[in-house]
Amino acid sequence: MNTSRQNKQDRDSQNSKAPRLVVLISGSGSNLQQFIDQTAAGKLNAEISAVISNRADAYGLQRAEKAGIETVVLDHTRFIDREAFDDSLAQVINSYQPDLIILAGFMRILSEPFVKQFAGKLLNIHPSLLPKYKGLHTHRRALEDGQKQHGASVHFVIPELDAGEVIMQGIVPVKETDTEETLADRVHQIEHIIYPEAVRLVLEGELETLEKPVKVYLQDA
After folding, report:
1. CA-to-CA distance for 57 and 42, rounded, in angstroms?
2. Which structural domains are found in the chain, ordered by start?
3. Which has the closest alpha carbon to 64: 79, 47, 80, 41?
C-alpha cells in the first residue's frame, strides 16, 4: 500500500467510525452515485473508501473522483486468468479493510475462492425479482412471459449465480406498452431506492428483526 493511502486511512480511522464501503463498478455508476449522495447527506452512515473498476473508461470513476473518493483501475485483460485477476482484486480490497463490498454494475463473474473469502460482506443488485430470471436479459424475459410485476433484488453473493439470500426487493408494474428500455428505466428507479436502504439495514444490524426479503413498491410508476 502506498504511503498516501495509508496516511488517509489513518486519518479516517481517527476522525470517523463510520462503516467502510468499497464499491466495484464497470460502467456508468448510477447506483454508485446514490451511495455517494446518501453518504454525503448523512442519510447512510458509511464511508466510501474506494471505487474499483475493471475498466479505465467507466464513467463511475469520474463520479468518484468528483466526490473525492479514491479510485483504482484493475484491467482484467492484463491477467492470465480469472483467478489471477480475483487474487489481485482481493488484495486491493483488503488494503481498504471494508465492512461491505458493493457490486454496482460490476460486469465480472467472481471466482468461488474470491466469493468465499468475502462471505457475508459481498452484496449485489440484480434486475429481477429473484429467484425469477437469474442471469442476463431479465427485462426481455419478463416481457416475453407476460409478467405483471418486475423489479430488482439486493442479495448476498454466494458462489452460485444470483442465488444468495435476498435482502430487499423493489417491485415495479409492467405496462402493456413497455419495451425493454422503458421497463429497464423503471427498474433503475427502484434500484436507486432500495440498494442504499438494503446496505443501511445490513450495517445497522436490522435484518434479524425483519421479514425478508423486505419489499418496496415504486409509487406513481
Report:
1. 29
2. 17-118 (3.40.50.170), 128-153+168-221 (3.40.50.170)
3. 47
Query: Which of these ranges, 11-25, 58-72, 111-125, has the smallest mean pLDDT?
Result: 11-25
How far is CA 132 from its chain centroid? Answer: 19
Sign of the alpha-carbon torsion through 201, 203, 206, 212: positive
Is residue 97 predicted with pLDDT exceeding 80? yes
Angle at 156 between CA 136 and CA 36, to 5 degrees: 85
> Is the pTM higher than 0.85?
yes
CA atoms within 13 A on the CB side of 84: 7
Cell 423493489 belongs to: 170
- Could you tell me whether strands 70-73 and 47-53 are parallel, antiparallel, or unpaired per DSSP bridges? parallel
| Spatial CB neighbours of 23, under 8 Å, sequence gap ≥ 6 | 32, 35, 48, 50, 51, 52, 64, 101, 102, 104
Is 76 marked active-site?
A: no
Q: Which of 126, 139, 150, 155 is catalytic?
A: 126
